[in-house]
TrEMBL record:
It holds the Pfam family CDC73_C. Belongs to the CDC73 family. One of its GO terms (biological process) is positive regulation of transcription elongation by RNA polymerase II. One of its GO terms (cellular component) is Cdc73/Paf1 complex. PANTHER family: CDC73 DOMAIN PROTEIN, PARAFIBROMIN. Residues 230-386 form the Cell division control protein 73 C-terminal domain. InterPro entries: Cdc73/Parafibromin (IPR007852), CDC73_C (IPR031336), CDC73_C_sf (IPR038103), Cdc73_N (IPR032041). It is found in: Nucleus. This is RNA pol II accessory factor, Cdc73 family protein.
């Protein structure tokens, strides 16, 4: 049987574009995408740079392409993203990516040519020096799961798995500077873990479950639900253009409608805003504050519970916003325990200070109010994901 062979150099971005233009089906099975005889992981990196730093994975681009082609609803798209553990596409990149994949444009400044060459060279098969060598390369081996694979396929999958692991654990801080983030969200917990290992109180081989139970605590969702508590979201005191304050918090967080708070006085507004939101089938009554001065009072110890109810904070980009917070001098530690957000206009660059914090960038357009709702959905999806994950408590 004659089989058309693909070139040894595989560019996942070009492969997806080729199949889109030619209206050929890309088949997803488990964590893989099949382009005819070519199999690639969802987490395979591409050369398309994110607006917020880092690179999109093949899965990110494929699912977005499916959304466009199938006219997928936003709710279904978010559910699919969560199900496949994909991050999705920044709103500002959507039109350009769609046009490129459909062949309406032939290039983009967002495609990193250097990264593209690295991806191509890393996927290039080594040329066979002789027929004997070629035979050894294509010799089939038996894997642990009983599946027959060629040595070449095995090596390629090992490479992709390594890249996938890096992409999962890497946290882009800016477009030029990155760092690898440990699975431990807290240096304090990590030191405690090492100390226990040294003292013989914990072993990684004999009692792995003890490590998890020592570090992780019940998720915020379960804790707040079981205790009947109201989650708290904190917003900046003063409204800045493209950002959020009490003035516009209720409309945006409850209805998905954005109104610029700059130069708007919220003194006549409610000092505490309440918003009802269903999270995983449970109706929570969220409280929104812009002043944390009353969160802890020596005369009223019960007020301390307010800090334990804080689940999210919209940052202004200024350090003084965290004055009065527990560990106010250690903002990264605060943003380990509370989900951080930075709301801005698409055409305003992210401040360096914010880019170095563990916050989610949520962007809105200046004059496209019909696009406020996707930003609203993005916020709640991110907050929900944070609330249902195990929380690391710090003393």
């Amino acid at each position: 049987m004659i089989r058309n062979k693909r070139p040894n150099k595989i560019d996942p971005l070009e492969l997806l574009r080729e199949f889109t233009i030619n209206k050929k089906d890309v088949v997803k099975k488990d964590q893989y995408l099949f382009f005819d005889q070519t199999k690639l992981e969802l987490k395979t990196p591409t050369a398309w740079k994110k607006n917020t730093g880092g690179y999109y994975t093949l899965g990110d681009l494929w699912l977005f392409n499916q959304k466009v082609q199938q006219n997928m609803s936003m709710k279904h798209y978010f559910n699919q993203r969560q199900s496949f553990a994909l991050e999705g596409i920044d709103k500002i990149d959507e039109d350009e990516i769609s046009n490129y994949l459909q062949g309406k444009i032939d290039n983009s400044d967002k495609i990193d040519q250097e990264a593209k060459q690295q991806l191509l060279s890393s996927r290039k098969s080594k040329p066979a020096e002789s027929s004997a060598l070629e035979g050894s390369l294509t010799k089939k081996i038996k894997t642990n799961d009983g599946e027959a694979k060629t040595v070449e396929m095995q090596q390629r999958e090992e490479y992709l798995n390594a890249i996938s692991w890096i992409m999962k654990t890497e946290k882009p801080l800016t477009s030029r500077t990155r760092m690898l983030r440990s699975k431990f969200n807290s240096n304090i917990n990590f030191k405690h873990y090492i100390k226990q290992l040294d003292e013989g109180k914990m072993t990684t081989q004999n009692n792995p479950l003890e490590i998890k139970s020592t570090i992780n605590y019940p998720c915020l969702f379960k804790d707040l639900r079981d205790k009947g508590l109201k989650p708290i979201i904190v917003v900046p005191t003063m409204g800045r253009t493209g950002n959020i304050s009490l003035f516009n918090a209720k409309k945006f967080l409850a209805e998905g409608k954005y109104e610029d708070p700059e130069n708007k006085d919220s003194d006549n507004s409610e000092r505490v805003i309440q918003i009802e939101k269903n999270i995983k089938g449970h109706n929570f009554l969220f409280e929104v504050y812009d002043n944390v001065g009353t969160f802890e009072s020596k005369n009223n110890p019960s007020q301390k519970s307010k800090w334990e109810r804080v689940v999210g904070v919209f940052v202004s980009g200024q350090k003084y916003q965290f004055k009065g917070w527990p560990k106010e001098d250690n903002i990264p530690s605060i943003l380990d325990q509370v989900k951080g957000f930075y709301l801005k206009y698409y055409d305003i660059p992210t401040p360096d200070q914010v880019a170095n914090w563990n916050v989610k960038i949520v962007s809105v357009y200046r004059n496209k109010r019909h696009l406020d709702f996707p930003a609203y959905e993005q916020f709640w999806q991110e907050l929900e994901n944070f609330m249902i994950q195990p929380r690391n408590k710090q003393k």
